[in-house]
Amino acid sequence: MPGRRARQAGVALLGRRARLRWTHLVLGGALLMPYWLVGTVVLALFTDRADAFTGSLTTQLGAYLLALPLAAVTGVVPLVRPMSVAAARVLCGVPAERLADGPATSRAAKARTAAWFTLHVGIGGLVSGASLALPPFAVTTMALPFSRGLRESALGRAYGLDHPWWAALGVPAGLLMLLALAAAAAGAGALLARQAPVLLGPTPADRLAAAERRAAELAVRNRLARELHDSVGHALSAVTLQAGAARRVIDAPEPDLAFVREALTAIEETTRRTVGELDSVLGLLRQGEDDGELPGPGLEALDTLLAHSGLEVACALEGDPVAAVPGPVSREAYRIVQEGLSNALRHGGAAPVSLRLRAADGELEVTMENPLTGRAPVVRPGGGRGLRGIAERAALLGGHAAGGPADDGAVWRLTVRLPLTGGRR
């Protein structure tokens, strides 16, 4: 047990973590030097001392005390925090999640960073000074029992090292000095490690900014998910319907090869168009960027969408919505129509669909109707999210969507209103 405690004490004083924290303190001492030099010059100006740089310990301590306020002023600079955080993570062993990211921008963050920087350079300067001065003195003390000339030298007599006691106590006294230095460095490093999350941790403003960034990232992922859901989901529904119809026609006693050829052509064009849209969305995922405008077709591609939807669609346009609708609204409207057609395929099969787009009074109104046949819908793994996605798209543009049975349950009606000047909010 005593041996184990001795090993634990050795690790605490000279282990890897203790050595890294000691390095962090020495770095603080190095950062203090410019401020200490300025403090020395200021002290020399006001005390009229020519020996300020080589003066007494009192003079050096005065320069040290003048240096700390100067360091505190520097700590207010926003970029001091990310540099201090990087050093604290690597050298102090503080977990990254307990420290803030980015420059200090708020008043509270700057004040905390200034306090940390002052504490770091202040304690680091003391430990660095001791690390430079104490080891040579300790080694000299340990050499006293073995060097009579050293004990009787002018330096030895000046410091009282010629006393007989030093001949006997030189080695243990030197070892005790080195041990005290290691203990002081370990204690100071542990103090900085405890204070780092307090002074360099996120402020309430930092936490709010981080929450806003996470919300923005989540919004981007949700937008990409909707793009994939609407594009791929509609394509699969249309391809499934066309393939099923072609299979039934081929199995008929007198196959209609023209119909089969038309169905296969529709499948080919639908999949080719969907692969292009899928590549665009996946390109954004690979780049990890979003410029606020997702690529994709708009209402100008509505004719192609309806022609290869696998449904008989009666489309009515009022107010020239293709030309009058801005780009962001046009793209969202296209996706809403696409998802509406997918829902009609899933719930109504090949039943005809009525589509009306009306651009008037500063808004685009999209109305879709399809008969409720009573057939069981095609079930997607994990359930469908079409109506929810439509509502989200409308809400992003400042509009709203409503869907449900109408005309005593005979038809399903989807109504979406999008402001033409809303854009993305």
UniProtKB/TrEMBL annotation:
GO molecular function, one term: protein dimerization activity
Domain of life: Bacteria
Annotated ranges, domain Signal transduction histidine kinase subgroup 3 dimerisation and phosphoacceptor: 221-289
One cellular component term from this protein's GO annotations in UniProt: membrane
EC number(s) on file: 2.7.13.3
Protein name: histidine kinase
InterPro entries (UniProt xref): HATPase_C_sf, Sensor_HK_TwoCompSys, Sig_transdc_His_kin_sub3_dim/P
Keywords noted in UniProt: ATP-binding, Kinase, Membrane, Nucleotide-binding, Phosphoprotein, Transferase, Transmembrane, Transmembrane helix, Two-component regulatory system
Membrane-spanning ranges: 25-46, 61-80, 114-134, 165-193
Catalyses which reaction(s): ATP + protein L-histidine = ADP + protein N-phospho-L-histidine
Keyword Flavoprotein belongs to the record: no
